[in-house]
Amino acid sequence: xxxxxxxxxxxxxxxxxxxxxxxxxxxxxxxxxxxxxxxxxxxxxxxxxxxxxxxxxxxxxxxxxxxxxxxxxxxxxxxxxxxxxxxxxxxxxxxxxxxxxxxxxxxxxxxxxxxxxxxxxxxxxxxxxxxxxxxxxxxxxxxxxxxxxxxxxxxxxxxxxxxxxxxxxxxxxxxxxxxxxxxxxxxxxxxxxxxxxxxxxxxxxxxxxxxxxxxxxxxxxxxxxxxxxxxxxxxxxxxxxxxxxxxxxxxxxxx
Length: 255
Ligand SMILES: Nc1ncnc2c1ncn2[C@@H]1O[C@H](COP(=O)(O)OP(=O)(O)OP(=O)(O)O)[C@@H](O)[C@H]1O
Ligand SMILES: [Mg+2]
Known about the structure:
The chain is an alpha/beta fold. The protein is built from 9 helices and 10 strands. Strands 6-7-8-3-9-10 form a 6-stranded mixed β-sheet. The chain has a 4-stranded antiparallel β-sheet with strand order 2-1-4-5, covered by helices on one side.
């Protein structure tokens, strides 16, 4: 197997989570390479979101370690990981429906800039955050929707706002949990173009959970397959689809 010569930006070693005697994530060891696009697939309940929770600090593991750029972050809270450059989106959108698109992004920008988390702050203090928020909205094509209440956005626009909020934190590594979930079929290609540009043009290392193989092929440098909490395989997309162990994990369902 030919490994890229780039150093690992994030690694897990023997990562595990047991809850009330049930193994949810089982002895997962992954090296994520700097700049790569790694897609994680696996059946429902395989542990993909839980793995992201362990990587982002939402959940602490029962065993194993997580390192980020050489720093052990196994027990670090999410905000510490965010400051180190690790950002994530959630499987279900986390925006504030009653706030405008810009206000949602501004809160994220304020958090990144270390200012007040309050919505109403002095105008001067807001300017940097607003500029940062507008830049992030522009990079996902939502600038024209800045004044729109988030509740009025389409599903696709809400997922773009999730990305803008993520980008406000200036991450170098992003974890995207099913970013196309809930999006109208006709809006999916635009979302994938956006994610491709976040990877290629904004030079982010991307880990993405995605079910649809047609979206992954041609996008992923590598694919990781999870099944029953275990990392079943990690390889190039071409080798993953040809992998018999992977095929049998899907019980004959075509990938
Ligand atoms: N806090 C928890 N307590 C108990 N069980 C949990 C907890 N979190 C997750 N699980 C269980 O762990 C398993 C993995 O869940 P997870 O959400 O990580 O799967 P997933 O691969 O993201 O699935 P999906 O494709 O449906 O999003 C599931 O069986 C789930 O019910
Ligand atoms: Mg999930």
